[in-house]
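Subject: for your reference before the review

Hello V.,

The reviewers asked for a structural picture of the protein, and I figured it would be easier to keep everything in one thread rather than splitting it across files. Below is the amino acid sequence we used in the manuscript, unchanged from the supplementary table.
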Amino acid sequence: MRTRHLLALAGAVALSALVPSSASAATTTFNTEAAFVAAAGPLTTESFEAAFVPSASVPFTGFTAARSGGPLSHDNFAASDGTFALGALSLTSGESFTFTFGAAINSFGINTIDFATIAAGTLQLTTNAGDNLVMATGTGFDPINNVREFGLINDSALFTTVTITFTGGSGEYIAFDELRFGTTAFAPPTGPNGVPLPPAVLMGGIALLAVPLRKRFGKR
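And here is what came back from the structure prediction:
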């Protein structure tokens, strides 16, 4: 029994030695569309150009968008791509927008347009994988049709919902455009030189440390 415990300990030590702390999983955020797209790889993009009936919940290809405080509209007031965007008039503090995906993803990006032009506010983004972060803040004097680009990649977990919650003054307008989503490959463990470690190397390291202990205790 003691031998098995020591072998297990050897395996844990080997694994921790081979996988540096810098390889720990994390969520990376981006404040430019170009940087997010370059890091995420293949993505599905929804530009909201196709017409839809205003509603509190609207289906799109691969996901559904919902608003807690009123209808979503097909607006041409402001767009970062094409002519139309997903709009929301007369926001009230505390209401949220939820994007529910048909398949699990770990990459999400979206452009927010015309935010905080009337009143100061904050957009808080959460996912059902545990992400919770400030997506945007505004003073209330931001220029008309301002565009805030945002993206995130979660390297540790997949998620199916993204919720954006607005906190601020009532009467604000907001639009969303160029929503991008996909599944980016998780980064593999890397060695000290940054080269990914194949599974055989990880298992080999554990075996090498375990052999001396097996021989030592096998003599007793």
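For the response letter, the relevant points are probably these. The two ends are 13 Å apart (CA to CA). Residues 199-218 form the longest helix (20 residues).

Happy to draft the paragraph if you're swamped.

O.
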